[in-house]
Amino acid sequence: MAERILVMGLPGSGKTYFSERLKKYLEDHGTIMNADPGRALMMENYIGDYRVKVDWFNADEIRRRFNDWDFSRDGRIRQSLRMFEFAIKCNGDYAICDFVAPLVEMRNNFKADWTIWMDTIDAGRYEDTNQAFVAPDVYDFRITEKNAERWVEFVGQHILDRRRRPTFNWQSETVQMLGRWQPWHHGHRALFERAIAKTGQVAIMIRDCQGWQGSNPFALDQVAGFIRRDLDPLYQGQYIVMTVPNIVNITYGRDVGYQIEQEVFDAETHSISATKIRQEMGLTK
Fold first, then answer.
1. Which secondary structure element, helix H or strand E, spans residue 177, and what is its range?
2. Which domains, from first to last, does the chain contain?
3. Which pairs with CB-CB distance under 8 Å and at least 24 residues apart come from 256-262?
4. What is the pTM of this model?
5. Which of 221, 223, 26, 232 is nearest to 118 (CA)?
6. Phi then psi for 101, rounded to 5 degrees?
7. Residue pLDDT, tens place only, 212-246
8. Residue 110: enclosing H or E segment and its boundaries?
């Protein structure tokens, strides 16, 4: 049975463009060892000649085939079941299905082996779909820019290698980053990349300080959203975001089993100011 790949996201997010290029990447680089290692053992003399087969089903084409343009909740559910049926009946090694899948029930119906969330726009062209869309909590890849050429190889090779994203391990050595992140910016990203190089995973702690000292305008969920949108494409599963009280002092006694370090960056990175960014956004403090 084909592995089902769901490419989901709002209308206009680049699902079809990405799917077309992902299909080509899988076909150009996939072998029998990727698609079916067990079968490869029985056809070792032909391994070099085999290329994976990829079927691609586009939601609009399927709706057109059935002349079904019902975008009510029932219509959307029916479409998800239809996409699932096409995927399980195809003869390829992989079945790519690109459709909005705004509802959790639709994603559950499709039972994807791989989920790619095209999170490249804040709103699509259809307001009813914007209102219905529930951002996924579970996905394998989150693409946050319209740059298929950059991300197709990353995603495609993970799929061919059956290489899942890491899972955060609470007992593994971890670096802590504590801050307001109002807002998260490139300097913070640089600090994160230094941090993750130390142990492979990072706990980012957001101080609960919205409105404190007449500033800090962003709510906790906004700050967490900024961080996840920036880090998820490359670092999903290698960090967690936690809310903590408005910590203003860190105290310890005798020698402890951790270090407190200050990272030094170039002048350009050090000059990045969250205060200036807020002013540029029209937020005065």
1. strand 175-179
2. 3-160 (3.40.50.300), 175-280 (3.40.50.620)
3. none
4. 0.85
5. 232
6. 50, 60
7. 888 899 999 999 999 999 999 999 999 999 999 99
8. helix 104-110
